[in-house]
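Morning!

This is the sequence you dropped in the shared folder:
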Amino acid sequence: MASSGGERKLSLGKRLSLESPRSPAILPWDRFSNWFHCACVVTFDLELGQAMELVYPGHVKLTEKEKMSICYLSFPDSNSGCMGDTQFHFRIRQCPGRRHHIQSHADYNVDCPAPLQTDNAHYYGFVYFRQTKDKTIRRGYFQKSVVFLSKLPFTHLFSHLIQIIAPEYFDNGEPSLEAACHDMDQWPPPIPEETLNLPIMGTVIQVRVPSRSDKLIGSLQPKSQPVLQVPVHTILPTIHEVDIFSSFQPVLPHIQMLWELVLAGEPIVVMASSPTISANTVQALISMIWPLKFCTDHRPYFTIHDAEFKEYTTRTQAPPPVILGVTNPFFAKTLQHWPHILRVGELPNSASSKGFNKLKKGGNLKTLDSKPGVYTRYKVFLNKDKTILKRLAKGIQTRRPVEVQSAMLRRHLLELTQSFMIPLERYVASLMPLQRNISPHKGPPVLSPFEVEEFLKTLEHSGPQLTSGLKGDWIGLYRKFFKSQNFEGWYNSRQREVNQKLQALHLEAICNSDLMGWIRDKQEVEVVDLVLRLREKMASAINNQIPVTRPVIDKLQSHLEGIVQSLPEDLRSVLKTNL
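The structure's back. Tokens below.
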């Protein structure tokens, strides 16, 4: 099954790379839309405030609500005091009823890691904001943002990309933005496991798109297909990762507690001094549970003008399971009822970082807007891992490179998440029916239901203690996880994948059976019913809803033709007209 997916991906990649830049099969902006929805320019109007100056390409439609959200989120809060250039990203809901199916995104979602899948209900916005003093402007300041909207959470790549495009736009105006978008309209689609060369404004960025089949620990990144030899100016080591060490340095002693909060989908507010720190910290939080997908809402940068402001700040109900990143001190009052608040300021140096290590209880929030730390009454389930903290502290003292510190911390969190998830994966595997019980003459089997208490019984002999030395109440943590959207999202995804696999095995069993022998003593109505069911299965296989190889589809087609041919002429003609 895995190999067939690889075959499909490879053939798709080859087909796309051999097509001419403007073949009739690819319309203008089709390739651009594989990566981005549009580019926007937001300016400050003395009468209107933030206003949309430009949307490119011109045919792209945004609702008024979407435009308003983009405008407000493209400028830092006035209290942030962001002079010069500022980069950050945000995430907004897409208005319902305007969602378009992009086939390359559907293909990409099949083989990419779950946390990097596109989200049909949201856009990511990648912002480059410039504020400079300008006496020729009545307000005294030039304020403008370049924003790229995308369905893809490629934080590192897109932040690097806008760093190239936006300064060119500020220097040379709209033609440079058009030129950049036309460059991106020549890019191949993002195919997992492929290394891509992406030309942009006279430079070339090389980046590898991660795959679900990548080994997570204990090996180098797998080699991908060789790419055309062109001069590469920048090789990005990652398409999506942020600097998690710098984001968490102010609160390193509480890293394990934060991991538990994110795993359990608890409501968290990140209060930061700038949208850059806010966005990076929120992104670092949701990446803590990789390779598990964070399935609740998250807003890397959230303002009082946001459409969901009332929904998220109401005191009439419990805070929703959302991670919010904010910079306006006003939130210190409106969100002080939230159970977990993470306050981060500018990045601390090694000499002053000790002051940020204390845990504050979540009731005393009068000084929330000034003192970094974690404000919560949460009781952790697992004992603290002091080894990783000592290693990171030593790295601070010896001035170990930030990239190395981040890699160490990321590996620690990955091992922790895997220790937690391996027993769950093992239990789900035990719910699969045996292959020998899959009969071509019965319906396809399905995954047995997940029984929480039965799973917890397996932990005594095959729990996290097999791969993690951490002690604590693992069962309590699992029970909390089972109530979260993260568990619901993970289980629904695994159930869908396993049932697809069972459908594929069932289809292979049908193809390997003697169908002509089976229909000999059957009534015509039963044979016609079989033909209709086989057609339905073949349509699902062709549309990749059942993951089988091409030879299986061909074999099924041959069976189908043989069965139809065995029927009387009048029935044959009826079935053929309904093909």
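Headline: The two ends are 28 Å apart (CA to CA).

More detail when I'm at my desk.
O.
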